[in-house]
């Protein structure tokens, strides 16, 4: 009788596939909101976390709560101030992060949440505003991915096989990169996020066989401090966004911990160049 040898993942229990042991994950936008929520999820999954953000200090009490989780689990949580649109600063910071990662927990994952919104119509938009949005949302993602890949590939020579010790990058796109936002004018933001969706596919094509999987998530409307300003300035916007979803509500940052940890973990070992829409049915 012909027998089939165990596969690299067949010897692991399913819950273990969703864990992030013996690794460090970089989280951009990790000082608040979505990024900080996902940073917590990574810590809870067993990863050391390095947060990077433009904020001089991460928001409280969420950061202290994450520190408590890290301490209780014997994990490291650190923070670097970084403008992801500054090419030189990104290269220097990523080189430092990779160099300082624990030997027993090397860098294996990255989640990019840093971004800026825009809520101006085309006729009220300046080219300077468009460039700022693209500098952070698109160019910032490009710079971080490039720096991550350069540092990781210099240290690792593996293929894309499951269990081979590869890396995973997860970019944050948006449902607005898939469909026009009829609730609010945000063409610059939408176009930048559409670019991110295709960047995930293109980067995956370049690095997949070298051991780096690249995917994206496309969130719907999230209640955060950043979106609160847009809501306050536009009466009726939140209600319109909520009514556009099949669930009839907005999301919270915590609802993205699961999808991101899935994409960072071995549970998604055959998922690459994908974009997971997590929008409450807004685009359905």
TrEMBL record:
GO MF term set: oxidoreductase activity, acting on NAD(P)H, oxygen as acceptor; oxidoreductase activity, acting on the CH-OH group of donors, NAD or NADP as acceptor
Chain ranges of the Ketoreductase domain: 23-220
InterPro entries assigned to the protein according to its UniProt record, in alphabetical order: KR_dom (IPR057326), NAD(P)-bd_dom_sf (IPR036291), Sc_DH/Rdtase_CS (IPR020904), SDR_fam (IPR002347)
Pfam families the UniProt entry points to: adh_short_C2
Record keyword Signal present: no
Keywords (A to Z) from UniProt: NADP, Oxidoreductase
Domain of life: Eukaryota
PROSITE patterns reported in the protein's UniProt record: ADH_SHORT
SMART domains the UniProt entry points to: PKS_KR
Family from the record: Belongs to the short-chain dehydrogenases/reductases (SDR) family.
Name assigned to this protein: Ketoreductase domain-containing protein
Source species of the chain: Kwoniella heveanensis BCC8398
């Amino acid at each position: 009788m012909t027998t089939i040898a165990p596969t690299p993942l067949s010897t692991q229990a399913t819950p273990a596939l969703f864990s992030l042991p013996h690794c460090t994950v970089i989280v951009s936008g990790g000082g608040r909101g979505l990024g900080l929520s996902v940073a917590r999820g990574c810590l809870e999954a067993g990863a050391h976390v390095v947060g990077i953000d433009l904020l001089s200090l991460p928001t409280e009490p969420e950061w202290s709560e994450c520190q408590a989780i890290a301490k209780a689990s014997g994990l490291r949580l650190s923070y670097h101030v970084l403008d992801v649109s500054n090419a030189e600063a990104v290269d220097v910071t990523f080189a430092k992060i990779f160099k300082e990662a624990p030997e027993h927990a090397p860098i294996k994952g990255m989640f990019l949440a840093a971004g800026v919104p825009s809520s101006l119509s085309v006729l009220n938009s300046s080219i300077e505003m468009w460039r700022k949005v693209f500098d952070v949302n698109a160019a910032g993602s490009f710079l971080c991915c490039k720096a991550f890949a350069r540092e990781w590939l210099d240290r690792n020579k593996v293929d894309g096989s499951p269990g081979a010790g590869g890396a995973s990058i997860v970019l944050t796109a948006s449902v607005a990169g898939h469909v026009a936002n009829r609730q609010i004018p945000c063409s610059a933001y939408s176009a930048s996020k559409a670019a991110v969706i295709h960047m995930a596919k293109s980067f995956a094509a370049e690095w997949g066989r070298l051991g780096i999987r690249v995917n994206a998530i496309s969130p719907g409307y999230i209640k955060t401090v950043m979106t609160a300003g847009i809501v306050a300035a536009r009466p009726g916007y939140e209600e319109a966004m909520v009514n556009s979803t099949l669930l009839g509500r907005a999301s919270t940052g915590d609802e993205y911990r699961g999808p991101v940890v899935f994409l960072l973990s071995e549970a998604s070992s055959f998922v690459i160049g994908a974009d997971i829409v997590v929008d409450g049915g807004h685009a359905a």
